[in-house]
Amino acid sequence: MASVDVGIGLLGYGTVGSSVNRMLVESADEIERATGHRLRVVRALVRDPAKERPFPAGDGVLTTDFETFRDDPEVQIVAEVMGGLSPAGDYVRALLGAGKPVVSANKQLIARDGAELFAAASAAGVQLRFEASVCAAIPVVKVLRESLVVSNVHRVLGIVNGTTNFMLSSMERGGSYADALAEAQALGYAEADPTDDVSGADAAAKMAILATVAFGSRVRFEDVECRGIEELEPVHVNAAAQLGMVIKLVGIATLLDGAVDVRVQPALVERSHPLAAVDGAFNAVMLQGDAIREITLEGPGAGGVETASAVVADLVSVVGTAGTGFLQNDACWRELARLPSSEWRSPFYVHLEVSDRPGVLAHAASRLAAHDVSIAQLVQRLEDGAAAIELVLHRAPFGEVSAALREIAAFPEVLRPPFVLPVIAERGL
Ligand code: NAP
Ligand code: HSE
């Protein structure tokens, strides 16, 4: 970087963008100590410059005209903190094409259009960084790409959505789904449309990015099997407690025999497991690998200042590594196959509601046995002539468990379709 004052352009000046500016102003000395440069916001693109801002931009910094922003020679590095696929994606492409390095906090954009954007960055010979797109303040992308570069990470477990973790923590304490969602929205954890949080789409985008970085092979948003928390009922939360577990929305990325499986779904987590203790809106990512055995990173996964901390770290990395060829752009270096969903293995929890008649339990057990699936725990509760059966199954292929449950569901005494979730108990230690 030739100039001492590095001009920063912000695509967006909302919760994260204004926090980035505040941090660059308030931490200018620390940044100069680290990089030898002072980073200053010279332009910020917004929709409404008249809007009141928590940390106002300098005079003449806000603009609504993208061409003015793109062509401003003072804008040397861009932070995309606008969100959404369009127009943010078109703007990032145009800026990379104009030779400007970009750092982005936009998980949906990176998870969906990453391949094309990284190719555009490489073609232009500039960097595209994305630490802030996953888990805000937790520096997991940097840890995976730099600290664990030779560690053969083969499993990533993540609680990567604060809203749903907050809701499930609240439901565990007896709160209702609706009250928990309303509180998460009031506290500002939820996305503008909370559907992305509760459906698992927000977590799926983050897991696609994490799996891509961890395994070095592209995992797109569409490749992630995704189930949200909408179908959870108090009966499942209570059953988990009875079994000594808690329910969490967990991202699970597995590299097995050269094939990749990435999924986001509610899971029962054993109380002694580190992920069970992740409370409220916090995020945590557990990395398991050959050399490291197991590392868990935990911290705030949302918020203006928390996300800005990752954006600023990426800006500093761009300044520090420009022209060196060090870990720039795409994390992909190979193409791995997808593991068929039926071959993905885990212990499972199953909730059955059946008529209280002779032979029903024996039938269920025989169908599981026919598929070589073994029962580890069983709890039964009777109520009004019906029985609720909670089963924990030993580790088995998902395809075999699903086939057994289809056969169990066909039995006339089974009152509702069986409900199945994975169980997380194993450690990488
Ligand atoms: P935000 O408060 O809604 O800010 C978005 C900014 O972009 C606003 O300044 C808005 O302008 C501007 N903008 C949006 N569409 C625009 C358009 N078409 N043209 C020009 N400007 C436009 O969003 P945020 O919470 O800061 O989030 C920004 C990004 O960070 C998103 O990708 C989000 O997923 C990611 N992120 C956020 C958090 C968090 O906790 N907030 C955490 C992790 C990641 P106006 O101000 O004029 O409306
Ligand atoms: N809505 C997200 C969450 C925060 O609840 O984790 C931004 O990623």
What does this molecule look like?
This protein is α/β, with parallel strands linked by helices. The protein folds into 3 domains: 4-136 and 306-321, Rossmann fold (3-Layer(aba) Sandwich); 146-300, Dihydrodipicolinate Reductase, domain 2 (2-Layer Sandwich); 341-424, Alpha-Beta Plaits (2-Layer Sandwich). It is 35% helix and 27% strand. The chain has helices spanning 15-26, 28-35, 66-71, 88-97, 107-124, 140-147, 162-172, 177-186, 195-198, 201-215, 234-242, 304-321, 360-370, 398-409, and strands at 5-11, 38-45, 62-63, 77-80, 102-104, 128-129, 153-159, 225-226, 245-256, 259-270, 282-289, 293-300, 337-338, 345-355, 375-383, 386-397, 419-424. The strands form 2 sheets. Strands 7, 8, 9, 10, 11, 12, 13, 14, 15, 16 and 17 form an 11-stranded mixed beta sheet that branches. The protein has a 6-stranded parallel beta sheet with strand order 3-2-1-4-5-6, sandwiched between helices. Strand 9 (245-256) and strand 10 (259-270) form a beta hairpin. Helix 5 (107-124) packs parallel to helix 10 and helix 7 (162-172) packs across helix 8. The longest helix has 18 residues, at 107-124.
Write the layout of secondary structure elements.
Layout: E1 5-11, H1 15-26, H2 28-35, E2 38-45, E3 62-63, H3 66-71, E4 77-80, H4 88-97, E5 102-104, H5 107-124, E6 128-129, H6 140-147, E7 153-159, H7 162-172, H8 177-186, H9 195-198, H10 201-215, E8 225-226, H11 234-242, E9 245-256, E10 259-270, E11 282-289, E12 293-300, H12 304-321, E13 337-338, E14 345-355, H13 360-370, E15 375-383, E16 386-397, H14 398-409, E17 419-424
Parallel strand pairs: 1-2, 1-4, 2-3, 4-5, 5-6, 8-10, 10-13, 10-17
Antiparallel strand pairs: 7-9, 7-11, 9-10, 11-12, 14-16, 14-17, 15-16
Helix pairs in contact: 1-12, 4-5, 5-10, 7-8, 13-14
The chain binds NADP nicotinamide-adenine-dinucleotide phosphate and L-homoserine (HSE).
NADP nicotinamide-adenine-dinucleotide phosphate binds next to helix 1 and helix 12.
